[in-house]
Design goal:
heterodimer, A: Aldehyde Ferredoxin Oxidoreductase Protein, subunit A, domain 2, Aldehyde Ferredoxin Oxidoreductase Protein, subunit A, domain 3, globular, B: 79 residues, mainly beta, Ubiquitin-like (UB roll), four-stranded mixed β-sheet, 4 strands
């Protein structure tokens, strides 16, 4: 087989022993790679009921068959584990350079098990694997750690690591790679911290052999040309990254504002893509081999928020910015830099502070408890809270558990805007009904990256779908969930994948993506087969959730989304009409009326009964 | 009647200098449609643009009313 190495590196951190093993080619084909392979091994080898922060939890880094190939944006990896934030599955995606370097070690997957007795990092230089002391970098931030580990290994190495938030087991801790890129969501950094694993350093030259190198090159060049044509026309993404989106969601009235109390933000012009471009943008910074290049280097040159780094992205603007009512752009950019340096998911960080702000303003949490006033719009307090969360100081200990546990502790669980205890991303589903169904049913708790139907409901990619209607949404959400499971398993980035390697129909179809998979692997997939494999991956993840105690009873939305109509904007008066969509969604997925996969469905997909 | 057109991100390059925060006010005759209003600007009117009226998905032939806001942005990718 090609495209995949069909090799797994397994590191037992308790014994500090590394072993390698081969992957059964049938398993490789049936589960695609990346996210698909990871859930196969997680489900097969681990009791889903384990404590996520115990040595028994497995932490899997997973590349796909298009990672480290010429395929445009073939630079992604997934971090898959049981989430300490949600108790469900975590599968967090990241790009940059580390994933390509990881695949070039000659392994498709790294599986970390057990717990080291003291802080360590793992150096993988092809077949040479060392578990080394990380005592000298423990306590250091992501940037310092990356610089130190590259200096003592090689400039040709790439580093994925945790910051203080992960070390301190904050439940919004991310795993950062190449300093600025994050496998952000669901507390994957806390799992790494619980294993005393500070960093993973990858280097090597083992590019995966390709089934049809010339064919892969030709199709990749053609795909990149299509991207390039849009870039030439003035693609939003290269100039703005995702920072142009606040104006879009504000226009539609779905921009999370003040912990989702509103759907529009009065000061949006202060923190939108143009403000960022005009004040702090230096240049774009692509992930490895990306023709789109949406990453951006920025700098606040002076003043109290002086700093330099990448971003912020939309999801940071809608959480630490509008979510918290913050309109000071320099402070918002600084907050983003801090989250990257401490290793924190900006969505959960921002929306947890937003929930605390609402509770403070309503008098449910006092200034004495917090240590300072915490009003919406107070950017200095917001920054102070980020530091407290990362280092578990004072009220930061409560914040570091996420908004669900925070709101529950202080007696107002209705103020946590979460599903499966994970904070909502930047699309208020009261004005984007498909997103509501997605958040309610996502295998990883509320997440746009689980099957982002906002592509159609908000961005018109590839076709514009009315966001306010529920009709047709169950089939669309199911289809997007499977499409995203496919992309996450392939090693591509969704930004390029959705627009350039699927057909431009309402029900996007992976014609070009399956061809790229075949040129890489020689597996001879049809588009229908890769979509069925994605369905297999999604359904197996659902089985994991059921066994983990996060089953159908959690397929719901928080009080605000179901019972408090949006007070402003084009979606004024709306709530999410989940009951109109959920039964049909279960049918579309081949699950019974209670939300459990049927025996017939499991048989059809070749999954264990 | 007076209406507003709002363009987002790179589309703002098409706006006249008097536009503020991506919004320009236009005096248009009765019967002007969404299509008529947005056609005044050099932006693609195909599936690479999203055009909404007061934030809502509507047919391009929808006639405008006093105070309406037509917004357009490039359909490239998500957030």
């Amino acid at each position: 087989m090609y495209g995949w190495h069909l090799k797994i590196l397994r590191v037992n951190l308790t014994t500090r022993k590394a072993t390698t093993e081969d992957v059964d080619p049938k398993i490789a084909r049936d589960y695609l790679g990346g996210r698909g392979w990871a859930i196969h091994y997680l489900y097969k080898e681990m009791d889903p009921a384990v404590d996520p922060l115990s040595p028994e939890n497995m932490l899997i880094f997973a590349t796909g068959p298009l990672t480290a190939t010429p395929a445009p944006t073939g630079n992604r990896y997934m971090v898959v584990t049981k989430s300490p934030l949600t108790g469900a599955l975590a599968h967090s995606n990241s790009g940059g350079e580390f994933p390509t370097w990881m695949k070039r070690t000659g392994f498709d997957l790294f599986i970390f098990e057990g717990k080291a007795s003291e802080p360590v990092y793992v150096l993988v230089n092809e077949d040479q694997v060392e578990v080394k002391s990380a005592a000298h970098v423990w306590g250091k931030d992501v940037h310092e750690t990356t610089d130190i580990l590259k200096a003592e290994t090689s400039d040709d190495a790439r580093v994925a690591c945790i910051g203080p938030a992960g070390e301190n087991l904050a439940l919004m801790a991310a795993i950062m790679n190449d300093k600025h890129r994050a496998a952000a969501r669901s507390g994957v950094g806390a799992v790494m911290g619980s294993k005393n694993l500070k960093a993973v350093v990858a280097m090597g030259n083992k590019n995966p052999p390709l089934h049809d190198t010339e064919g892969m090159r030709a199709l990749s060049v053609d795909t990149s040309k299509n991207v390039g044509a849009d870039v030439k026309k003035g693609s939003n993404m290269r100039i703005y990254g995702t920072s142009y989106v606040p104006q879009v969601t504000n226009t539609l009235g779905i921009l999370p504002t003040h912990n989702f109390l509103q759907g529009t933000f009065e000061h949006v012009n202060n923190i939108d893509g143009d403000a960022l471009k005009n004040q702090y943008l230096i240049r774009h910074t692509p992930c490895y081999r990306c023709p789109l290049s949406c990453g951006r280097l920025t700098e606040v040159p002076d003043g109290p928020y002086k700093g330099k780094g990448e971003g912020p992205e939309y999801e940071t603007i809608s959480s630490l910015g509008t979510g918290c009512g913050v309109s000071n752009l320099a402070a918002l950019v600084k907050a983003n830099y801090l989250c990257n340096e401490y290793g924190m998911d900006t969505i959960t960080t921002g929306m947890t502070i937003a929930a605390a702000m609402e509770m403070y303003e309503k008098g449910y949490i006092s200034e004495d408890v917090i240590g300072m006033p915490l009003k919406f719009g107070d950017h200095d307090a917001m920054i102070a809270m980020i530091k407290k969360m990362a280092y578990m100081e004072g009220f930061g200990k409560d914040l570091a558990m996420g908004s669900y546990r925070l709101a529950e502790k202080y007696g107002h669980p209705e103020l946590a805007v979460t599903t499966r205890k994970q904070e909502f991303p930047g699309y208020d589903p009261r004005g984007s009904q498909g997103m509501g169904l997605l958040y309610a049913t996502s295998n990883k708790g509320a997440s746009h990256m689980e099957g982002d139907v906002a592509y159609e409901e908000v961005f018109g990619v590839p076709v514009k779908e009315n966001p306010l209607t529920t009709e047709g949404k169950p089939e669309l959400v199911k289809h997007f969930e499977d499409s995203f499971a496919l992309i996450d398993s392939s090693g591509l980035c969704v930004f390029v994948a959705i627009r350039y390697v699927f057909s431009k129909d309402r029900m996007i179809w992976p014609e070009r993506l399956s061809e790229l998979m075949n040129l890489s692997t020689g597996a001879g997939y049809t588009p229908a087969e890769v979509m069925q494999a994605a369905d297999r991956v999604y359904t197996l993840e659902r089985m994991f959730l059921i066994k983990a105690g996060s089953g159908p009873e959690h397929d719901t939305l928080p009080h605000r989304m179901l019972h408090e109509p949006l007070p402003d904007g084009p979606a004024k008066g709306r709530v999410v009409e989940l009951d109109k969509m959920l039964p049909d969604f279960y049918k579309e997925r081949g699950w019974d009326e209670k939300g459990y996969p049927t025996q017939e469905k499991l048989m059809e997909l070749g999954l264990p009964m | 009647m007076m209406i507003c057109v709002k363009l987002i991100a790179n589309y703002r390059e098409q706006l006249p200098p008097e536009a503020k925060n991506g919004v320009v006010e236009l005096d248009v005759p009765d019967g002007t449609t969404v299509y008529d209003a947005i056609s005044k600007f050099d932006i693609p009117l195909d599936d690479t643009s999203v055009i909404v009226l007061n934030g809502l998905t509507v047919d391009m032939s929808t006639p405008l009313k006093e105070g309406d806001m037509v917004t357009a942005f490039s359909a490239i990718a998500g957030g």
